[in-house]
Amino acid sequence: MQEFIINLMNQFGYIGIFLLIAIENIFPPIPSEVILTFGGYMTTYSNLNVPLVILSATLGSLLGAIVLYAIGKILNKERLMKIVSGKVGKILHLKKEDIESADKWFDTKGEKCVFFCRFIPIVRSLISIPAGMSEMNIPKFLIYTTIGSLIWNSVLVVVGSIVGENWENIVNIFDTYSTITLIVLIIIFILFVVWFYKKRAKKQQVS
Predict the structure, then answer these.
(1) How far apart are the first and last CA of the chain?
(2) 76 Cβ partners below 8 Å, 6+ apart?
(3) For the chain, how many structural domains are there in total?
(4) Local confidence pLDDT in tens for the 207 residues of the chain
(5) Whole domain around residue 146: which residue ranges?
């Protein structure tokens, strides 16, 4: 994968960076760390420059986020509620009220999530789906996505340009960060599921 990414970027430059980052946002397993840090390194031996590499990456991030937002809008709250009211809801012990609560939560906390999640592996891409599902204000979504992506992209591209040929060492550091973050997220998710069903059980006992 890494060799393919490097070859594509060497061949197509800014356009390659734009397309790879757009794809990375839609398919999170593709490592943005490799794209961005190598993109920074490319500025030390090619005609590419740091500002335009960052711009290309940020535009790619924005395109990918818009695609996932659109997917989320198609899988809107009403459709989720229909799904939950059927067999899937019974299996997962979910109700329409749960979807309503999640939607209200995103309405109040969504803007911050869209921004801060841009710094969290995998989640930085997937956060666009619930944003679309809750029909978050599009201009706000684009603004927070752009700012968050710009910061993330700038840090990695600049670091890549500074360390030069040692860019792979930075990728290894971010790989460790991604792994630790993913483990923490899994633990948080498990704890949330346990808390959610315990709360549900208590409500059922009271009623």
Answers:
(1) 54
(2) 132, 133, 135
(3) 1
(4) 567 777 888 888 899 999 999 988 887 666 778 888 988 999 988 889 999 999 999 999 999 999 988 988 887 667 666 665 666 555 545 556 656 666 676 777 677 888 888 887 777 777 888 888 888 889 989 999 999 999 999 999 999 989 888 888 877 877 776 677 777 767 876 776 676 666 666 666 655
(5) 2-206
> Which candidate, 122, 149, 125, places its Cα nearest to that of 25?
125
* Cβ atoms of residues 40 and 158 within 8 Å: yes
Which candidate, 137, 128, 145, 117, places its Cα nearest to that of 57?
145
Whether pTM > 0.85 for this model: the answer is: no
On whether the CB atoms of residues 10 and 48 are closer than 8 A, the answer is no
And the tokens for 126? 């997937």
| Closest to 36 (Cα-Cα) out of 135, 26, 25 | 25
6-10 long-range Cβ contacts below 8 angstroms, 24+ apart: 6/34, 6/38, 9/35, 9/38, 9/39, 9/42, 10/42, 10/46
> Which of 62, 57, 84, 72 is CA-nearest to residue 153?
57
Is the CB of residue 72 less than 8 Å from the CB of residue 130? yes
Neighbouring C-alpha atoms within 13 Å toward the C-beta of 5: 21
